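N5-carboxyaminoimidazole ribonucleotide mutase
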Amino acid sequence: MSSLVGVIMGSTSDWDTMKKACEVLEELGIPYEKKVVSAHRTPDLMFEYAETAAARGLKAIIAGAGGAAHLPGMVAAKTVLPVIGVPVQSKALNGLDSLLSIVQMPGGIPVATVAIGAAGATNAGLLAAQLIGAFDPQVQARVAARRERITQEVLDNGELPL
Ligand code: RP5
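Predicted structure tokens:
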């Protein structure tokens, strides 16, 4: 089956974070592709990727970047697919720079921004799955089952040692 979600990141150094999104998509059986696409190092590739994404069958794009993180916003400007932005934790400013670069999109071109770092990448995978699940009952059932499992784990392990 062709990919439904595109997971892109500005650098190979983002992979440790962005693999969390891929792990979720794999767990939920959602076909995805992953690629390094840099807004400043490979700008032409970024435009081509964004411009062709919908025609290639993608339903959502997860874009992760750190520092002056313009990748998600630039990609969102060139596609009408939903774009989920993951602020990668930067060394200098702990990802606050990434977060503010991604989240503060002017009205008109949305980027759904998640938390900084690994939790954000996990949630980006889940959010993409939920978007697809809105039109695919099997995917939605798998997302619901994952929630139930997490709830049960908390209920089973909720007793604290005294
Ligand atoms: C951004 O610059 C990337 O998304 C990465 O988070 C950051 C640093 O990239 P490298 O210098 O590690 O390649 O483009």
